Amino acid sequence: MTDPLVSAWASDEDAAADQTVRPKRMSELIGQHRVREQLHLLLQSALRRGSPPDHILLSGPPGLGKTTMAMIVAAELGAGLRMTSGPAIERAGDLAAVLTSLQHGDVLFIDEIHRMARPAEELLYSAMEDFRVDVVVGKGPGATAIPLDVEPFTLVGATTRSGLLTGPMRDRFGFVGQLEFYEPEELEQIITRSARILDVPILEDGAVEIGRRSRGTPRIANRLLRRVRDYAEVRGNGVVDLKAARAALRVYDVDELGLDRLDRAVLAALLRHGGGPVGLSTLAVAVGEQPDTVEEVCEPFLLRSGLIARTPRGRVATASAWRHLGIPAPAGTVVGGNPQGGLSQTPDLFSLEP
Ligand SMILES: Nc1ncnc2c1ncn2[C@@H]1O[C@H](COP(=O)(O)OP(=O)(O)OP(=O)(O)O)[C@@H](O)[C@H]1O
Ligand SMILES: [Mg+2]
């Protein structure tokens, strides 16, 4: 597997650490202005009407704040919160038990909602729409469906793969919030806030440097902060500053753009093939990883930062990738996006380096 330091997925350590620094109220959230404003309106109007708001779907890559926002929705509504996840709901009956035990106005959070079993999903449809579920008792010809009422509730679903949600499921959400990657300045604010909560002395240049290398993702920013803190405590004067950040991230092999060893290996393999196009399986073999790992772990960030592009014939390295590895690009190389910002600029396949 890839170096977990810059993986956006939560590790066990993150789960505990996330808890401490997780914003608890809307006013503590940094960034995500669009979704925040939309959610604010939705929640305020529901509070005025005195009825639960529409069901909410939060979609976006791991570590951007879906769980955080779900918890904030409940807090802002002053409502009870029940948390479960798609894979945890194996049978429709499990879900029926949860649904029928909800109290009026509760928030039910289902993480990874795209991974729910189909029978449970169908049960959820009627609960979402009519606040009613049919619980089937018995098997075969003798089976009977017993209709049960569900108290009005708000479902908050989270998904990293909104494309895998079924149409009927998606249609039942009154509000879909698409979370975006964060700007470096926002990550800097998140890091400064977390350092304050963790009682870690930090200088602005340290926060800027860590923010720049955090792949637009708060979870990674908080994790890198903890590693730089370790370094500063053991090898430095305990202060997280530019010098400590640079030195620590060198030890952990996270480069200026936030790429780790595997990301750079993928880029280097592409360049060895003249910049591509190279198929996914060839690339995976070249770096000694599973194709899934390359596709799901490395590629999203490499694509987003404009270092590679996908073409019908395979992956190609952009001019930014050549520049990043310090090798002159051959003529005709695709120009990349903007790796410094590391944001979702899609490389323009039709503009060629002069
Ligand atoms: N807008 C934000 N402002 C400040 N900190 C944030 C923000 N969003 C997320 N974080 C921090 O990042 C951590 C990870 O966020 P969260 O667990 O909500 O991500 P997620 O989208 O649910 O990820 P996953 O898809 O892996 O479940 C949180 O513990 C929190 O500290
Ligand atoms: Mg989550």
UniProtKB/TrEMBL annotation:
<keyword id="KW-0378">Hydrolase</keyword>
<keyword id="KW-0547">Nucleotide-binding</keyword>
<keyword id="KW-0227">DNA damage</keyword>
<feature type="binding site">
    <location>
        <position position="22"/>
    </location>
    <ligand>
        <name>ATP</name>
    </ligand>
</feature>
<comment type="similarity">
    <text>Belongs to the RuvB family.</text>
</comment>
<feature type="binding site">
    <location>
        <position position="315"/>
    </location>
    <ligand>
        <name>DNA</name>
    </ligand>
</feature>
<keyword id="KW-0963">Cytoplasm</keyword>
<dbReference type="Pfam" id="PF05496">
    <property type="entry name" value="RuvB_N"/>
</dbReference>
<dbReference type="GO" id="GO:0004386">
    <property type="term" value="F:helicase activity"/>
</dbReference>
<dbReference type="InterPro" id="IPR008824">
    <property type="entry name" value="RuvB-like_N"/>
</dbReference>
<feature type="binding site">
    <location>
        <position position="219"/>
    </location>
    <ligand>
        <name>ATP</name>
    </ligand>
</feature>
<dbReference type="InterPro" id="IPR041445">
    <property type="entry name" value="AAA_lid_4"/>
</dbReference>
<feature type="binding site">
    <location>
        <position position="63"/>
    </location>
    <ligand>
        <name>ATP</name>
    </ligand>
</feature>
<keyword id="KW-0234">DNA repair</keyword>
<feature type="region of interest" description="Small ATPAse domain (RuvB-S)">
    <location>
        <begin position="183"/>
        <end position="253"/>
    </location>
</feature>
<feature type="binding site">
    <location>
        <position position="66"/>
    </location>
    <ligand>
        <name>ATP</name>
    </ligand>
</feature>
<feature type="binding site">
    <location>
        <position position="182"/>
    </location>
    <ligand>
        <name>ATP</name>
    </ligand>
</feature>
<dbReference type="InterPro" id="IPR008823">
    <property type="entry name" value="RuvB_wg_C"/>
</dbReference>
<feature type="binding site">
    <location>
        <position position="67"/>
    </location>
    <ligand>
        <name>ATP</name>
    </ligand>
</feature>
<feature type="binding site">
    <location>
        <position position="172"/>
    </location>
    <ligand>
        <name>ATP</name>
    </ligand>
</feature>
<dbReference type="InterPro" id="IPR036390">
    <property type="entry name" value="WH_DNA-bd_sf"/>
</dbReference>
<dbReference type="Pfam" id="PF17864">
    <property type="entry name" value="AAA_lid_4"/>
</dbReference>
<keyword id="KW-0067">ATP-binding</keyword>
<feature type="region of interest" description="Disordered">
    <location>
        <begin position="333"/>
        <end position="354"/>
    </location>
</feature>
<feature type="binding site">
    <location>
        <begin position="129"/>
        <end position="131"/>
    </location>
    <ligand>
        <name>ATP</name>
    </ligand>
</feature>
<feature type="region of interest" description="Head domain (RuvB-H)">
    <location>
        <begin position="256"/>
        <end position="354"/>
    </location>
</feature>
<protein>
    <recommendedName>
        <fullName>Holliday junction branch migration complex subunit RuvB</fullName>
        <ecNumber>3.6.4.-</ecNumber>
    </recommendedName>
</protein>
<feature type="domain" description="AAA+ ATPase">
    <location>
        <begin position="52"/>
        <end position="183"/>
    </location>
</feature>
<dbReference type="Pfam" id="PF05491">
    <property type="entry name" value="WHD_RuvB"/>
</dbReference>
<comment type="function">
    <text>The RuvA-RuvB-RuvC complex processes Holliday junction (HJ) DNA during genetic recombination and DNA repair, while the RuvA-RuvB complex plays an important role in the rescue of blocked DNA replication forks via replication fork reversal (RFR). RuvA specifically binds to HJ cruciform DNA, conferring on it an open structure. The RuvB hexamer acts as an ATP-dependent pump, pulling dsDNA into and through the RuvAB complex. RuvB forms 2 homohexamers on either side of HJ DNA bound by 1 or 2 RuvA tetramers; 4 subunits per hexamer contact DNA at a time.</text>
</comment>
<keyword id="KW-0233">DNA recombination</keyword>
<comment type="subunit">
    <text>Homohexamer. Forms an RuvA(8)-RuvB(12)-Holliday junction (HJ) complex. HJ DNA is sandwiched between 2 RuvA tetramers; dsDNA enters through RuvA and exits via RuvB. An RuvB hexamer assembles on each DNA strand where it exits the tetramer. Each RuvB hexamer is contacted by two RuvA subunits (via domain III) on 2 adjacent RuvB subunits; this complex drives branch migration. In the full resolvosome a probable DNA-RuvA(4)-RuvB(12)-RuvC(2) complex forms which resolves the HJ.</text>
</comment>
<dbReference type="InterPro" id="IPR004605">
    <property type="entry name" value="DNA_helicase_Holl-junc_RuvB"/>
</dbReference>
<keyword id="KW-0238">DNA-binding</keyword>
<feature type="binding site">
    <location>
        <position position="310"/>
    </location>
    <ligand>
        <name>DNA</name>
    </ligand>
</feature>
<feature type="region of interest" description="Large ATPase domain (RuvB-L)">
    <location>
        <begin position="2"/>
        <end position="182"/>
    </location>
</feature>
<dbReference type="InterPro" id="IPR036388">
    <property type="entry name" value="WH-like_DNA-bd_sf"/>
</dbReference>
<dbReference type="InterPro" id="IPR003593">
    <property type="entry name" value="AAA+_ATPase"/>
</dbReference>
<feature type="binding site">
    <location>
        <position position="67"/>
    </location>
    <ligand>
        <name>Mg(2+)</name>
    </ligand>
</feature>
<keyword id="KW-0347">Helicase</keyword>
<feature type="binding site">
    <location>
        <position position="68"/>
    </location>
    <ligand>
        <name>ATP</name>
    </ligand>
</feature>
<dbReference type="InterPro" id="IPR027417">
    <property type="entry name" value="P-loop_NTPase"/>
</dbReference>
